[in-house]
């Protein structure tokens, strides 16, 4: 609901009053902005010399490499969690009781745990149990996939439940076997349906991949941190701003895509 | 197993710190979200823009980056505060945006007819807002707010990496000194997080069902 | 019971949604105590017309006046005027977070600043009158459609309105509940209330209306007494409409 629907359409007097209020709010906002800028300037945050760092080719290329690493984690995690999520959703809808209960427990348990803890489960737990080592990339991906598999499973299930019931019955009547039925008839429709969901998951995973920072996988945030450590504290704010802007741009683009997809599909 | 039993007290104090972190940043985020939502439904276009810009920016910066900024960068600029306070600030900045969205979704769910009925009876805009929009919108937003709070609980774990000895930070410290009991310590931590999040998720789902039946 | 004094006067009203014209040069007067029933195919603008009378739908040009007072543009004075015009909606629109009794007491307490005991006594009396007194402590969602609509009528009556507007009051009811709601409305016509009723109920229009207004494509096509309208209407469009609904 737009705010315009919350209120009566304003008359001329109300419109004039609203304009006055807007002007007053603008003055206050401007005052706050000026104060903030002055405060930052007094801390030398806004000194041009510091911000020039963002135009240096090696800083830029480091940040872009960090961004690529972030996108690599996000992309791989989304694809894998899609596959795992599909299997868990099928398990959840299975007629075999033990399978559906197990899937349900998987979903509920993983949804309630911090992503960071799941990443550590893999990063520290995998070597502890198997004795083999695991790279930070795969520890991060596996942790994120564990976490996201739960919400993907729920998305898949909602997608399957939204299908007209006749679809799968018709397929069974035609003698199409379970796997074929799934592959050629149900899945394409379900994937179409959860596409917007999938893109918003991309946003979540892109943000969550910043947890790689904690286990030492050099993604965007850790790249920023290393750059600050290397160049010095006076460059902290410009570099952090660069990192934040890159995250915002990627996430906004993805959100936009998700919005367009969900509009087109509905 | 022994490492867990010997350190139950340590776990407990970490758990309490997590609860404190959740309670404080939860309340502040709700208040921030309420403020942003009141901007978002204001007749003042500037306030609406400010609210939208805040949400668009803050929601798309990862939680870890928010905490990194508060706990790593602010002290470089001369800000002096405890890690705990800075963590609360970082989480609040991030989750105010989500609380606002939860509250707004509750307000959006109010039927247009409810507003028309109120207007037709002669209530002024302000009265309609206070007596119809606020009570209905807030009760609609209880389930999404609980879900937001669950997400918040999970994000507090990141504060453990930045020097706050809440549950996750406690776990990291214990793992450092008991590296043979890694799995047991992590399982114990997982159980303690689940004690908070799973009942909350069930409650949100139950309330949602109840609301769905009522309308 | 009718007098010559105009309660509602609608003059030269036009309304556009974008470039689409929903109301075209509407002129209509409703006298004190008169019951006007508005008929017409769906999409004819009859509901929109009803909603312009208390400005729930703003108009593009023309004037709407109640007792000679043109509807104000500012929402403050507008709401004072609205408090004297009762409205009943197709979807009932009872306040979901209040009980039945609270729904009926709500506006007298909040708008008229009546004492709660007085508003409560009056609300109970009205609920009794529309036959849902026993449901007073339930939530709207626990009531049947017919009961909800009767509560909605009681809620509007609690403000002692000078005019009652009914916007398709029975269109979303199950057939077996239509009569219980129409009975209450017929009761009101007998009490001399000024009313504008948009409806598809031809039987009701025939017996309860003082005047029929027939609309098509945003225009008033025909105005006549019910006898005239149903026995020999003048226009082709009305004939076509009647042949479909009767």
TrEMBL record, chain A:
All residue ranges annotated as the ABC transmembrane type-1 domain in the record: 67-258
The UniProt keyword set, sorted, is:
Cell membrane, Membrane, Transmembrane, Transmembrane helix, Transport
Q: Name one GO biological process term.
A: amino acid transport
Q: Which domain of life is it from?
A: Bacteria
Q: Which residues form a coiled coil?
A: none
**Pfam families per record:** BPD_transp_1
Tell me the GO molecular function terms.
Answer: transmembrane transporter activity
Query: What compartments host this protein?
Result: Cell membrane
Q: Which cellular component terms (GO) are annotated to the entry? A: ATP-binding cassette (ABC) transporter complex
Its topology with respect to the membrane?
Answer: Multi-pass membrane protein
Question: Transmembrane stretches, by residue range?
Answer: 20-42, 62-90, 116-147, 235-254
Instruction: Tell me if Hydrolase is a UniProt keyword of this record.
Output: no
Per the record, the similarity remark reads:
Belongs to the binding-protein-dependent transport system permease family.
* PANTHER family given in the database record: AMINO ACID ABC TRANSPORTER PERMEASE (PTHR30614:SF21), MEMBRANE COMPONENT OF AMINO ACID ABC TRANSPORTER (PTHR30614)
* Stated name of the protein: Amino acid ABC transporter permease
Origin species, per record, is: Arthrobacter livingstonensis
UniProtKB/TrEMBL annotation, chain B:
Cellular component aspect of the GO annotation: ATP-binding cassette (ABC) transporter complex
Q: What is this protein called?
A: Amino acid ABC transporter permease
Q: Which residues span the membrane?
A: 12-41, 53-77, 83-100, 151-175, 181-207
What UniProt keywords apply to this chain's record, in alphabetical order?
Amino-acid transport, Cell membrane, Membrane, Transmembrane, Transmembrane helix, Transport
Predominant place of localization: membrane
The UniProt entry lists membrane topology as:
Multi-pass membrane protein
Location within or outside the cell:
Cell membrane
| Residues covered by the ABC transmembrane type-1 domain | 15-204
Pfam family membership, one = BPD_transp_1
Coiled-coil residue windows: none
Tell me which family the UniProt entry assigns to this protein: Belongs to the binding-protein-dependent transport system permease family. HisMQ subfamily.
**InterPro entries xref list:** AA_ABC_transptr_permease_3TM, ArtM/GltK/GlnP/TcyL/YhdX-like, MetI-like, MetI-like_sf
Superkingdom field: Bacteria
Which GO-annotated molecular functions does the record name?
A: transmembrane transporter activity
Among the GO biological process terms of this entry, one is: amino acid transport
């Amino acid at each position: 609901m737009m705010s315009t629907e919350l209120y009566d359409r304003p008359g001329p007097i109300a419109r004039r009053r609203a304009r006055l209020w807007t002007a007053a709010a603008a003055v206050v906002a401007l005052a706050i902005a000026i104060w903030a800028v002055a405060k930052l300037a007094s801390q030398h945050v806004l000194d041009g010399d510091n911000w020039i760092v963002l135009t240096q080719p090696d800083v830029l290329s480091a940040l872009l490499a960090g961004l690529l690493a972030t996108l690599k984690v996000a992309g791989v995690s989304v694809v894998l969690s899609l596959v795992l999520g599909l299997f868990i959703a099928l398990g959840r809808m299975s007629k075999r009781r033990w399978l559906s209960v197990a899937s349900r427990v998987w979903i509920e348990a993983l949804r309630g745990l911090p992503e960071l803890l799941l990443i550590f489960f893999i990063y520290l737990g995998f070597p502890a149990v198997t004795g083999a080592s695991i790279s930070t990339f795969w520890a991060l991906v596996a942790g994120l996939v564990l976490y996201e598999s739960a919400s993907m499973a729920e998305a898949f299930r909602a997608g399957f439940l939204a299908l007209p019931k006749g679809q799968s019955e018709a397929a069974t009547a035609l003698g199409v076997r379970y796997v074929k039925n799934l592959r050629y008839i149900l899945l394409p429709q379900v994937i179409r349906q959860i596409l917007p969901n999938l893109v918003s998951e991309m946003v979540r995973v892109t943000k969550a991949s910043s947890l790689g920072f904690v286990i030492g996988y050099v993604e965007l945030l850790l790249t920023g941190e290393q750059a600050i450590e290397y160049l010095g504290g006076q460059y902290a704010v410009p570099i952090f701003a660069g990192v934040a802007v890159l995250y915002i741009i990627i996430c906004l683009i993805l959100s936009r895509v998700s919005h367009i997809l969900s509009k087109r599909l509905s | 197993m022994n490492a867990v039993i010997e350190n139950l007290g340590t776990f407990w104090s970490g758990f309490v710190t997590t609860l404190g972190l959740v309670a404080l940043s939860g309340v502040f985020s709700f208040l921030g979200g309420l403020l942003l939502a009141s901007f978002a439904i204001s007749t003042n276009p500037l306030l609406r823009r400010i609210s939208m810009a805040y949400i668009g920016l803050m929601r798309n910066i990862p939680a870890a980056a928010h905490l990194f900024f508060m706990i790593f960068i602010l002290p470089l600029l001369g800000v002096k505060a405890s890690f705990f306070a800075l963590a609360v600030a970082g989480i609040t900045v991030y989750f105010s945006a989500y609380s606002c969205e939860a509250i707004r979704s509750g307000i959006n769910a109010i039927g247009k007819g409810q507003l028309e009925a109120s207007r037709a009876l002669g209530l002024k805009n302000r009265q309609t807002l206070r007596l119809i929009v606020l009570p209905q919108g807030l009760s609609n937003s209880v389930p999404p707010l609980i879900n937001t709070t669950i997400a918040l609980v999970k994000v507090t774990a990141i504060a453990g990496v930045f020097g706050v000895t809440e549950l996750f930070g406690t776990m990291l410290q214990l793992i450092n000194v008991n590296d043979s009991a890694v799995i047991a310590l992590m399982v114990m931590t997982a159980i303690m997080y689940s004690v908070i999040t799973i009942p909350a998720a069930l409650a949100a789902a139950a309330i949602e069902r109840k609301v769905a039946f009522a309308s | 019971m009718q007098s010559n004094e105009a309660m509602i006067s609608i003059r030269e009203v036009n309304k556009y949604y974008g470039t689409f014209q929903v109301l075209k040069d509407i002129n209509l007067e409703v006298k004190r105590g008169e019951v006007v029933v508005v008929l017409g195919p769906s999409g004819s603008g009859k509901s929109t017309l009803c909603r312009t009378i208390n400005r729930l739908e703003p108009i593009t040009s023309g004037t709407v006046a109640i007792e000679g007072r043109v509807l104000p543009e500012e929402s403050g004075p507008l709401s004072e005027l609205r408090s004297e015009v009762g409205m009943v909606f197709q979807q009932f629109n009872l306040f979901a977070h209040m009980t039945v009794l609270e729904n009926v007491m709500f506006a007298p307490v909040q708008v008229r600043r009546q004492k709660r005991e007085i508003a409560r006594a009056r609300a109970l009396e009205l609920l009794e009158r529309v036959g849902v007194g026993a449901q007073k402590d339930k939530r709207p969602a626990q009531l049947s459609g017919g009961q909800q609509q009767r509560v909605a009528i009681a809620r509007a009556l609690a403000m002692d309105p000078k005019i009652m507007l009914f916007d398709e009051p029975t269109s979303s009811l199950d057939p077996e509940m239509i009569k219980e709601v129409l009975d209450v409305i017929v009761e009101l016509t007998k009490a001399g209330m000024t009313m504008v009723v948009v409806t598809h109920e031809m039987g009701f229009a025939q017996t309860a209306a003082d005047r029929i207004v027939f609309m098509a494509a945003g225009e008033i096509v025909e105005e006549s007494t019910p006898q005239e309208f149903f026995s020999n209407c003048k226009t082709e469009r009305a004939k076509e409409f009647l042949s479909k609904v009767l």
